[in-house]
Design a protein that fits this description.
The chain has 401 residues and is mainly alpha-helical. The chain has helices at 16-29, 33-48, 54-66, 71-114, 118-147, 151-166, 171-186, 191-219, 226-239, 248-259, 265-276, 285-315, 318-324, 328-356, 360-376, 380-399, and strands at residues 6-7, 13-14.
């Protein structure tokens, strides 16, 4: 694919390397989570620079909302694909992800080396509490934006919330089930196509179940199977993330804490915090988790696992999606799966909050953080840094130091 200048907007030309340079910069300085990042893309590429036109941007974000995967990373890859095909998708995706990947690797090394230092413990004492508020607000915004006044979608939300809190059951299968329920209720295509949809969902559910069983069996076989476990676990997680980067939290909490025992609850909250104080896609938290489990190799395998489905779920359906973007079954499925994601995130808030909010100061930090997000729209990185400062101030009082 040529990287010669191509007319994209009505008044501007842009080469692939110009686009790659933009996403490298956005990945290095883009804070605020998925909604903010895709907003920056629209502002910079469509409105100010006129590097892409409105239709290309809308097509990219619609594909990202329909297919599983973290919104910001998938939108970036889709823009690259619609500009320059496979080469564009590959180079733009790498450029967007690479800065935060290396930042998280560096923070992971520092955490492992200095994590037991009292000052680091104090930082994460405050940060862990405010992370609960951030995840709670993400669940609320996702649910409000997706479910609106729809009783069926709120029913899906409630069911996943209850299942997550009560049992921590296999979320991938429930996400698929929620999507199928919405197709059956709102966009049933008839017996023949309906049977094909049910068969596809059953196949995906069976694959998720088989991967889960393999992971649990491999856990008993020792360190020699660990690299493959890491790759498969995060590939599975990347294939079933709907709605937001933080939608991955319930998957990870169930898998790396409850099922596989790779991290403690405290370490898991620290991992989420690391993602929130670095730019780029929120799902980059998996690099921190992989590093704690298996050093640099684990971090690399986690990144490959989480982003490989994102990449293929963009490039494979993109040509078809360009022709069938208004498909009723696709839209019904994604609305059900996203409602399920918001319920699972809300359930994860309860599970994680029970372990992170351990005393009056942590409860107060979480409540203040919630008000700061709700009332004053404070950006998450600043909130995390402020909570870390509060932790440094309060830790000696709480621990009697």
């Amino acid at each position: 694919m040529s990287t010669s200048p191509r007319e994209i907007g009505a008044t501007s030309v842009v080469t692939l390397w110009m686009l790659v340079g933009y996403f490298l910069r956005l990945g290095a300085i883009g804070f605020g989570g998925p909604a903010a990042l895709v907003g920056y893309m629209r502002r910079d590429l469509v409105e100010e620079r006129k590097w892409i036109d409105e239709d290309t941007y809308n097509l990219s974000i619609a594909l990202s909302q329909i297919m599983p995967g973290p919104l910001a990373a998938q939108t970036a890859i889709a823009i690259g694909y619609f500009h320059s095909g496979l080469r564009g998708a590959t180079l733009v995706g790498i450029a967007f992800i690479a800065p935060s990947f290396f930042m998280v690797l560096a923070l992971s090394w520092l955490y492992v080396r200095f994590g037991e230092v009292p000052q680091i413990q104090a930082l994460f004492y405050g940060i862990g509490a405010v992370v609960i508020a951030i995840i709670a607000m993400a669940a609320y915004r996702l649910a409000r934006g997706t479910n609106k006044r729809d009783p069926l979608l709120w029913g899906v939300f409630a069911a996943l919330f209850a299942a997550t809190v009560a049992t921590g059951v296999e979320l991938a299968s429930l996400f698929l089930l929620a999507g199928v329920v919405l197709i059956a209720a709102r966009a049933w295509p008839g017996p023949r196509r309906g049977a094909a949809i049910l068969g596809g969902a059953a196949t995906l559910g069976g694959l998720a179940w088989a991967m889960e069983r393999f992971l649990l069996r491999a856990e008993a076989s020792g360190a020699q199977a660990l690299p493959l476990q890491i790759l498969l676990f995060f590939t599975k997680a990347g294939a079933f993330v709907f709605g937001s980067g933080l939608a991955i939290v319930p998957f990870l909490q169930q898998g790396v804490v409850r099922d596989l025992g790779w991290l403690t609850e405290h370490q898991f909250l620290d991992a989420v915090a690391i993602a929130l104080i670095t730019p780029g896609p929120v799902v980059i938290t998996v690099v921190f988790i992989g590093y704690l489990v298996y050093d640099v190799t684990g971090g690399v395998l986690a990144a490959v696992g989480i982003f490989a489905p994102v990449y293929f779920f963009t490039i494979l359906p993109a040509p078809w999606f360009r022709r069938h973007r208004d498909n009723a079954q696709l839209r019904a499925f994604v609305s059900g799966a996203t409602a399920a994601a918001s319920g699972a995130i809300a359930g994860a808030v309860v599970l994680l909050g029970a372990r992170a909010l351990v005393d009056v100061p942590t409860v107060v930090i979480a409540l203040v953080g919630l008000v700061a997000i709700w009332r004053y729209r404070v950006a998450e990185p600043w909130l995390v840094l402020a909570a870390g400062g509060a932790g440094l101030a309060l830790w000696p009082l709480v621990r009697g130091g």
